[in-house]
TrEMBL record:
SUPFAM superfamilies: Immunoglobulin
Source taxon at top rank: Eukaryota
Cited SMART domains: IG
Lineage: Eukaryota, Metazoa, Chordata, Craniata, Vertebrata
Species of origin: Nyctibius grandis (Great potoo)
Annotated ranges, domain Ig-like: 1-86
Protein name as it appears in the record: FCRL3 protein
Amino acid sequence: PVSGVSLAVEPPGGQLAEGDCLVLSCSVAAGTGPISFSWHREGSATPLATGPRYELRAVQHQDGGCYRCSATDGGTAADSAPLRVTVLGERDPAPS
């Protein structure tokens, strides 16, 4: 059975500004056979994406919230603990 589902986030801490890139990675401590992953936000049953990695190239304020990853080996499924992503105000423009 699948177990030990964990999430990693870049940038660490899950705080970023609008326009930044968010990368979430999902891994399992144990599982047999091919493992498939799906991504969910705020308890939504419809997956945002599939695969062990979820990337948002330019986050918007509405992308903030609790994300989780679900992993299945076809027989059993397990979810990661929820991870909160906070999107702060717009990024300061680069000095000229």
